[in-house]
Design brief:
It is built from seven helices and eleven strands. It is an alpha+beta fold. Helix 1 runs antiparallel to helix 3 and helix 3 packs antiparallel against helix 5.
């Protein structure tokens, strides 16, 4: 083939590459099938959003009802209404959580479809670029000297040069787009992983909410058992429960004061001081969640008294660890269904109380080492050591500073 013909063919190829390069630099549409599936998923995601918004409005309405009822006079009817609203709200919370899980799953499917389409597009573009490179290599045998000799003017030569430069620019743009597409793909994969983690957390939250629902139902059951009583009898029972709580609280406060004085008089304070400053650990693992916080406004029995500690969800019979070395100041345990607790006295004016215990592993007036098993959790209504005011298996844990209840979360590791 003579040089002139080769140059003509090269020009056609250059022009073809330039044209193809123009198209390759433009965004490629997603495949039709994927577009259809993505549209369907977007519709389903939007539907879940609407359903979640509707549920949220109902949840907010129940929350307002609960606040309104809590401000009313504490009657049997009022307390049952509060619990009924709390249970209804919690049921809606569970439904909303389930809808969010469904929405997350749909979003993950949506991302997967986009990733698949992007991978196909990248593969197609790579094939095109490979073909262009093969054509350039095959026809890049004509030297610039030959082009100058065959062209009639420098203008033709410069036109040919511009074609060549344009092709290289387009190829560079195509490679940059591929790199950007790859980075976008990696970002979407990372997003997929984050959404998967969020989905697992939502599932855990849902399970926790179901457990909380069971506890709320139990709390409601305690009140419903009293519905056969007159309002006057109900108020009398509340008064007795308040007296019992005040008596226990006063007993713990007085015991702590007397025991600290006794330790000083018996010269045991020196041994006590060997423990060093109190640095608490969790008496049971908080992994299963905290059902009631310090002075929690949602505490089911708040109409009787403020909740003075944490209720840590724990299976019945879970070992209780001493959160710090201390002196066993008091054990209230009869082996029946009455309220049972253990009190430890620590340095820095701190003491800890563990209630609804189903078994005791220490004795009064002995020292417990940090982390030592001092008892077993309880709280299951009607079980040993549970007492009257319990909604399910858990450990009631108090921290007291100079006899006054304080927020345990301020003393526990986060």
């Amino acid at each position: 083939m003579n040089i002139k013909i080769k140059l003509i063919l090269t020009g056609f190829i250059f022009f073809g590459l330039l044209t193809a390069g123009f198209f390759i630099s433009r965004p490629q549409p997603l495949f039709a099938q994927s577009n259809s599936e993505v549209s369907q998923l977007n519709g389903q995601i939007e539907q879940r959003r609407k359903e979640i918004n509707i549920l949220q409005k109902e949840i907010d309405a129940y929350a307002e009802n609960i606040k309104a009822k809590q401000k009313e006079t504490k009657s049997l009817k009022g307390q049952i209404a509060i619990l009924e609203n709390q249970i209804a709200k919690l049921n809606l919370d569970i439904q909303a959580t389930q809808k969010r899980i469904e929405q997350t799953n749909l979003e993950i499917q949506n991302i997967n479809l986009k990733i698949q389409s992007l991978e196909k597009e990248i593969a197609a573009q790579k094939e095109k670029i490979a073909e262009y490179l093969r054509l350039i290599y095959k026809n890049d045998q004509v030297s610039y000297l030959q082009i100058i000799l065959i062209n009639q003017s420098f203008s033709d030569f410069f036109d040919q040069m511009q074609y060549t430069e344009q092709i290289h620019r387009n190829l560079k743009t195509a490679f940059n787009k591929l790199k950007a597409a790859k980075k976008d793909l990696e970002t979407q994969k990372s997003s997929w992983e984050e959404k998967a983690k969020a989905e697992e957390k939502l599932k855990e939250k849902l399970l926790g909410q179901k457990s909380e629902l069971d506890e709320r139902n139990s709390a409601q059951g305690i009140l419903l058992l009293q519905t056969h009583l007159s309002e006057k009898q109900y108020q009398a029972n509340l008064y007795q429960l308040q007296l019992e709580e005040q008596k226990i609280n006063a007993e713990i406060t007085a015991l702590e004061k007397n025991i600290r004085k006794k330790l000083e008089e018996q010269a045991q304070q020196e041994k006590f001081n060997q423990f060093g400053p109190a640095k608490l650990i969790w008496p049971v693992s908080p992994e299963r969640g905290i059902t009631t916080y310090f002075h929690d406004p949602d505490y089911p029995f708040r109409y009787l008294f403020e909740h003075p500690g944490l209720d840590i969800r724990a299976y019945q019979g879970t070992p209780i660890k001493a959160p710090e070395a201390g002196y066993v100041g008091r054990i209230q345990f009869r082996g029946d269904k009455s309220y049972a607790y253990i009190m430890l006295i620590h340095n820095n004016g701190l003491s800890t109380v563990f209630a609804h215990v189903s078994a005791v592993k220490v004795k009064e007036e002995e020292y417990a080492a940090k982390g030592q098993i001092i008892g077993l959790t309880g709280g299951l209504p009607g079980s040993i050591g549970s007492g009257n005011l319990t909604t399910g298996p858990h450990l009631h844990f108090e921290v007291r500073l100079n006899g006054i209840p304080v927020n345990p979360l301020e003393y526990l590791p986060q």
